[in-house]
Amino acid sequence: MIKERLNEPDVANGVILDGFPRTMEQVKALKQKVDLVLNFDIDLDKLQDRLVNRRVCTGCNQSFHQSKLVNGKCPECGA
After folding, report:
1. pTM here?
2. How far apart are CA 43 and CA 67, in angstroms?
């Protein structure tokens, strides 16, 4: 599925694969040139806070941290 997607014209200038590949077998199966690899070293407590307190507005579909709520409403659209 990923090989097929990487052959689509809209990714001709590059693509970001988040969480893939995870194993050496996946790397070998990918058989694509990789120009850059990023590894984010994030504090586990901060990561957990981001995940647990992430909200998505039902009005504008914007994601934000729960602490950004304004009177219990979306900080972007007020929904």
Report:
1. 0.51
2. 19
Q: How many CB atoms lie within 10 A of CB 76?
A: 15
Q: Are 57 and 49 in contact (CB under 8 A)?
A: no
pLDDT at 77: 95
Amino acid, single-letter form, for residue 49: D
pLDDT, tens digit (0-9, with 9 covering 90-100), for 21-74: 888 888 888 877 777 778 888 899 999 999 999 999 999 999 999 999 999 999
Phi, psi for 61 (deg, rounded to 5): 65, 15
Rounded to whole angstroms, the Cα distance separating 28 from 73 reads 47
Phi/psi for 54 (5° steps) reads -75, 135
Unique residue bearing structure tokens 């304004």: 70
Q: Please, which residues bridge with residue 56 across strands?
A: 63
Q: Across the chain, which distance is largest between two alpha carbons, in Å?
A: 51
